[in-house]
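Worked example 4.2. Below are the chains of a multi-component assembly; read each line carefully before continuing.
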Amino acid sequence: MVRAPCCAKMGLKKGPWTHDEDLILINYINLHGHPNWRALPKLAGLLRCGKSCRLRWTNYLNPDIKRGNFSREEEEMIIQLHSAMGNRWSAIAARLPGRTDNEIKNVWHTHLKKRVNSNSNSKTSESKEKVEEIKEQESVELSPFETNSSTRTSYNEIDSPQTSSTYNSSVTTSTNAYDENLCMDDMDLKNFPGIDDEFWSEIFSGENSGELPVVQENIGQFPSGCGYESILHDDMDFWFNVFTRGDELKQF
DNA sequence: AACATCAGCAACCGCCCCCGA
DNA sequence: CTCGGGGGCGGTTGCTGATGT
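Applying the procedure described above to all three chains together yields the following structure tokens:
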């Protein structure tokens, strides 16, 4: 069975995400969670495939993500985990709070692989011990019913609760909580520590004011409290219109 | 200053697994 | 039990900025 690529639909945008798209995605997920990634872009008014949205969220927009350079400790951790687990990036990411599998994969290929290769001959007994320790932990964590070929999912379920996927699932499962309880306190920018201040300042500064009229006009109302939700619904209407009009245009 | 090369990283692609109908 | 949809994972690509010539 061969499934068509998720972006095979004509008219879906590919490539780098814009600030506007990021904002739409963040707004939508904060309001509704992401119970269904495939349906999300259409509901949110994005001309993207669901997969692309999921990737953008988990690798970049998720507030749990710690951005910036990897510390020496983190790098050492990755090296040790990699020697114990191999290329199981999601499993490695699960042990590094705030880091995504994609990010770790990139760091590995760009920095750490070379370093490990150059140090491969001079591996200390200490580091070997740590690798063995991790391997041991692995075998303990895996349930007795699971073999070494256990699925990725089962591994991740056992793994650290601090992962970004945990956040994702909490958003997904607590959609109602978001809908019912969302107010400015929840939407405080402090809840997005992982995203650069620059990112927010660019969005909120009015730099895109011409492109995002509705959003920009209402930004100033955020501190007033729970009016935010209705504002965002208005935004959704706006973008939904954009999207549906886009559909109309495609017919020509 | 202009061009070439390299490095870093965001994003895409295709495959696999899980789960519900 | 089977099938298909959805989500997740790892590998790879390609763009962009930095550095070297």
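Take a moment to check your reading of the output against the notes. Residues 1, 3, 6, 15-16, 36-38, 50-51, 54, 58, 87-90, 101-102, 105, 152-153, 156, 165 of chain A lie near DNA strand C (CB under 10 Å from a C1'). Chain A is about 60% helix and 0% strand.
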